[in-house]
Amino acid sequence: MYAALARMSNVRRICEIGFNGGHSASLWLWANPTAEVVMFDLWEHEASPLGEKFLLSDEARSLGIVDAASRLKIVKGNSLRSVTQ
């Protein structure tokens, strides 16, 4: 369902609160290879930097996650302050 939503022709940006290990970010990046993906996260989990590093790696590119360095933005901090209405 998520991949189908991400692939809709009008989707240009995907925003989500909570990065944790980057699992859903990898799905968004893979499902829509042109959309900007913006993640908001407290950045308190040990897995978060590892997930970010993976998404920017050659291994991720080999699995079809393209241009993550230019398409993925992670806003680190409390989303109560960083996400505005």
Question: Explain this structure to me?
Answer:
The chain has 85 residues and is of the alpha/beta class. 42% of the residues lie in helices and 19% in strands. The chain contains 6 helices and 3 strands. It has helices at residues 2-6, 23-31, 47-55, 58-62, 68-71, 79-82; strands spanning 13-17, 36-41, 72-76. Strands 1-2-3 form a 3-stranded parallel β-sheet. The model has no long low-confidence stretch (mean pLDDT 96).
Q: Could you give a quick summary of the protein structure above?
A:
The chain has helices spanning 2-6, 23-31, 47-55, 58-62, 68-71, 79-82, and strands at residues 13-17, 36-41, 72-76. It is an alpha/beta fold and 85 residues long.
Write the layout of secondary structure elements.
Blueprint: H1 2-6, E1 13-17, H2 23-31, E2 36-41, H3 47-55, H4 58-62, H5 68-71, E3 72-76, H6 79-82
Parallel strand pairs: 1-2, 2-3
Distance between the amino and carboxyl termini: 26 Å
SSE pattern, N- to C-terminal: HEHEHHHEH
List unreliable stretches of 5+ residues: none
Task: Assign a percent range to the helix content.
Answer: 40-55%
How is the largest sheet built, in terms of strand order? 1-2-3
Report the total helices. 6
Determine the structural class based on helices, strands and strand pairing: alpha/beta
Average of per-residue pLDDT values: 96
Binned strand content: 15-25%
Shape: globular
Q: Give Rg in angstroms.
A: 12 Å
Report the biggest beta sheet as strand number plus sense, adding barrel if it closes: 3 strands, parallel
Beta-strand segment tally: 3
